[in-house]
Structure formats: C-alpha cells, structure tokens
Amino acid sequence: MDYPPPGRRAFDPHSSGLHAGAEAPPARPNWARRVNTIGEVLVTLGLVVLLFGAYEFWGKAWRMDRDQHGLDRDLDRLWAAAAVPRRGEPIGRLYIPRLHKKWVVVNGVGAASLAKGPGLYPGRDRAGDVGNVAIAGHRMPSVFWNLDRLRTADPIIAETRTGWYVYRVVGLRVVRPTQVEVVARNPDRPGARPGRRLMTLTTCNPKFENYQRLVVRAELSRVQSKRAGRPAELSAR
Amino acid sequence: MYSWIWRHLPGRAPVKVAGAVLLTAAAVAFLWFVLFPAVDGLLPFDDVTVE
User: Fold this and answer.
1) CA A187 to chain centre
2) Does some domain include residue B10?
C-alpha cells in the first residue's frame, strides 16, 4: 500500500518545516509495484465473482418478482381484450398451494421468457386439453425451487381467461435433459394420439446444477368456471 | 491500482472517502444492473427445458 505522500504536511502551519515541499513517496522497485497491482486486480476479480453469485441468487429473484408484478396487470388487460398472447407475453396463472406459490405463466420457454416466470412450451396444449400442458421454470427461490417437495395428489391449479383447471400430481421423475418425450403430447407413447389430460412441469436438477431435469406430472382432476368463484383447492394444502 | 485511485481522488481525506464510496457504489451498480444481466443469459446454469 502506498500512503499519501508526506509532502501534504507542507500545509500544516505547525509543521517543523522539515518535510516542506513536494516530496516524492519513497521509491519502491518497479517489480514490487507490479506484483502489488496484480494482487489488487485478483482480489477485485474475486469480489466481482462473489457479487455475481449474490446476483444469481437474490438479484434475479428481485427482477423476477418485479416482472411478475407487471405481468399480473398485463394479463388482466390481455384477458379483458380477449387478445392472443404473443411470445413472451403472459398467458395464464399457475398456483401450487403446497409450496404457497403463485405465478403468471408466460408464452414460450426462451431465456427472455423464462427470466420473467414459468413458461409454456410453445405450440402445445392449453390447460384442460386432451394432451400435455408443458411448463418450464427456473430452479430458483422465486420459481420452482421446492418442486421436489410436491407429493402425489397435491393440487396444481391453472387459471385461464375462462376457467380454473385443477390438476393433481401423479408423479415426480428425474430425467436427462435430452429426454424430450416427457413433454410430448402423449408422454407414455410419444407420437401416439394423446388420451389423457396431463400437465408437465420441468426444471433443472439438482439445485445449482443443470445436468438433469426434474419432471412433475399431473393429471386434470376437475374444471371450474370463473363464475363459480375460486376453487376450494387454492386454500387447501 | 487502489493507491493510484486514492491519490487521484480530489479533496482532503473525508472527501476522498466519500469519493471512494461513490466510485464503489457506481461500480457495483454497473455490475448489478448492466453487466450481470447481460452475462447471465450466456451462462448455462439454469437450462430448465428438455430439448
């Protein structure tokens, strides 16, 4: 560490005058200063990486909460206008009472879409359809962090413009990222005609890693129209 | 590096400290709001889809 040059003492009226004048700081060999600088740069990079870790955990959650807030209002507006959501726009709401969670689901599973919340795989079935409603979400505290805590028969509720669709968990699986059949319209026999009304949630597994996918499968249990109010499962656990 | 910055900050010690805090805050804000969001999408940490 260099200290401020002693020459500053020239401004002190009580100075003995011994240090008067602009003195240079004590000379140090060039290599020592260079090593010092390299050390400071390395320490700084270390701090930046730590800060990035904090951003990945808290910063992204904060951004997503902010985005979800805006999407909530956008969704009501889209529904009021009966508009078809484009890529990245909100398409519905998803509730998991067991995890005390509620999200606005966006249309699409690109990075930009998933940064805002859970995303619906494009071109696939919608809530209530015979087939498979496939939704992806990040394994982060504000999204599918505790998805592994779901148990069989737990309700997962989808809200669309016209109704409530109460799904119940059928099973959890861990698969390789290449096993696309889990989001097929008929996941048991990909390519065959779908016969069940399924919903599939995918996220990365394990936490902080991405070499597997955690897959939750649920099946439609009942449908309730918007006029009948909110479904009882929303308050159940 | 840091001593160089310290020497080039204007004013007396308290003013320099304020300047240093301000510089640090600016650097952190730039990383948090500009650089990290831009870099984040390039990293594979949170691929969640099957493809």
Assistant:
1) 25
2) yes
